[in-house]
Design brief:
eight-stranded mixed sheet; ATP hydrolysis activity; nucleotide-binding; ATP-binding; Oligopep_ABC_C; globular; P-loop_NTPase; 13 helices
């Protein structure tokens, strides 16, 4: 991987919301497990807390397999088996959506939240035109008194395509007749159709060429500024995230290990993993670019973990790091979970409870039933099944 000593800072991010504003999204203690019919359980998201305020544009970065997309699915209640929301609370606009299902969840989505997936070709139905896609969404979420005939659907579709800089003639096209960038813009337009207050973009530029990537990201940034919705940009491309967002959450092995303003992250990271990611980022404007990487491999998420999950790869690791999971603490302008960096000045935040049962050993029958972090919730899973924590 290419590395730069001087990563570029984000350019002209939108103003950050006032700290006094009530959160639009407040998730606490979120645990997600993959439970296949055969094989081992994978604890993909471990005791994650997320707070988003109205109008924020937040990045979520980390290595492939760290749980970024799974967290996005959990926050929008889009998990499907074998993934299961094992425990936690997800409050959107003051309502715990982790307890909703069926019609209640459908009503909450309208004007609430949406998820844009990473590949338009996989998202769109290949035998339905773009107009049919708009019709399907608008009819499925219509409220009493609304009528969505063909003319109304085409008018609304034309408006939405115009917002993402696409021509109305595409309404009669099929997905395979569109370029990758066009398909992704259509997916964004579909997400906008119900006027959500929060949109999660899951790797929106994956598999696009550089020109299409830039165009799609510019569209997302323009829409977020114009419409003011809250957004999460999930990506492994740290450069894209730094340039687009207000703040960045860094995820490692299913946990949030750092949460800092985007402008503070460059040159001001506090977690060793974040520092390692920044060293893997190449600034094309730099006169000197170095190749680098992060030694070692991420931990096996089918096992319980003892201490900080980054310990085996961390150059700063001490004995306490191997024994005790670090709490998320106030460091600099944000939060970081690092014993070493927090030693002089730390203020643990709610939810940063040290893990008590996180031993890196083979999974026992007891381990198979217990989440890796404390929880006390009875939840309705995405498929409507109740899941009761035994703790």
């Amino acid at each position: 991987m290419a590395t730069s000593q001087h990563p570029r800072e984000p350019s002209s991010p939108p103003p950050q919301p006032e700290a006094s504003e009530s959160p639009l999204l407040a998730a606490k203690g979120v645990n997600v497990v993959y439970e296949p019919a055969r094989g081992v359980r994978i604890w993909s998201v471990r005791d994650v807390n997320v707070t988003l305020r109205p109008g924020e544009f937040v990045g979520l970065v980390g290595e492939s397999g760290c749980g970024k997309s799974t967290l996005g699915f959990a926050l929008t209640r889009m998990l499907r088996p074998p993934a299961r929301l094992r425990s936690g609370e997800i409050f959107f606009d003051g309502k715990d959506i982790s307890l909703l299902d069926g019609e209640d969840l459908r009503r909450q989505r309208r004007g609430g939240f949406a998820l844009v997936l990473q590949s338009g070709m996989n998202t769109l139905n290949p035998v339905r035109t773009v107009a049919h896609h708009f019709g399907d969404i608008l009819k499925a979420h219509k409220v009493e008194g609304e009528h969505w005939g063909q003319a109304e659907i085409r008018n609304r579709g034309t408006e939405l395509l115009d917002k993402v800089q696409l021509d109305a003639s595409l309404l009669d096209r099929y997905p395979h007749e569109l370029s990758g960038g066009m398909r992704q813009r259509v997916s964004i337009a579909l997400a906008l159709s119900l006027q959500p207050r929060m949109i999660i973009f899951d790797e929106p530029t994956t598999a696009l060429d550089v020109i299409a990537q830039k165009a799609v990201m510019q569209t997302i940034k323009d829409l977020q500024r114009e419409d003011g919705f809250t957004a999460i940009l999930i990506s492994h491309d740290l450069g894209v995230v730094l340039e687009a967002t207000d703040r960045v959450m860094v995820m490692y092995a299913g946990e949030i290990v750092e949460d800092q303003p985007s402008r503070s992250l460059v040159g001001g990271a506090h977690h060793p993993y974040t520092e390692a990611l920044l060293r893997c980022y190449a600034d094309p404007r730099a006169e000197e670019i170095h190749l680098g990487g992060i030694p070692g491999t991420p931990p096996d998420l089918s096992l319980s973990l003892a201490g900080c999950p980054f310990t085996p790869r961390c150059p700063l690791a001490e004995d306490i790091c191997r024994l005790k999971d670090p709490p998320l603490a106030a460091l600099g302008n944000g939060l970081a979970a690092c014993h070493v960096r927090a030693r002089k000045d730390s203020a643990p935040v709610d939810g940063g409870v040290p893990a008590t049962v996180r031993q890196p050993t083979a999974q026992t029958s007891a381990d198979a039933e217990a989440p890796p972090t404390p929880s006390r919730q009875v939840l309705a899973d995405a498929d409507g099944t109740e899941v009761r924590d035994v703790h």
